[in-house]
Design goal:
The chain is mainly alpha-helical. It is 61% helix and 0% strand. Bound molecules: zinc ion. This is Transcriptional regulator SutA RNAP-binding domain-containing protein.
């Protein structure tokens, strides 16, 4: 009985150790990254923000209808023409 309890306590402690080790590893990595970033900036490096292109929906195309699952009037009309659907009703 006592041995089982000891085993459980050990297991929990091992788990804690792993978590703590992971925490330290993460912190080290973050510090390393920051140091590298400072070095990079000190050398005259620049940080460019990646421009995020907004997604433009192209209604009335296969991509929009099939991949994006758009069921707007324009896409539905395309689907009818492309014989993707047989009904004129728009199902939502
Ligand atoms: Zn559409």
């Amino acid at each position: 009985m006592n041995e089982m309890l000891n085993q459980r306590i050990q297991a929990v402690q091992i788990g804690k150790d792993i978590t703590h080790a992971q925490l330290v590893a993460k912190r080290n990595l973050r510090e390393e990254l920051e140091t590298e970033m400072e070095k990079y900036l000190a050398r005259g490096g620049q940080i460019k923000q990646v421009e995020q292109k907004q997604y433009e929906a192209r209604h009335g195309t296969n991509t929009q209808y099939t991949n994006m699952g758009c069921r707007c009037k324009k896409c539905h009309a395309w689907a009818l023409k492309a014989k993707k659907v047989k009904t004129g009703e728009i199902r939502l």
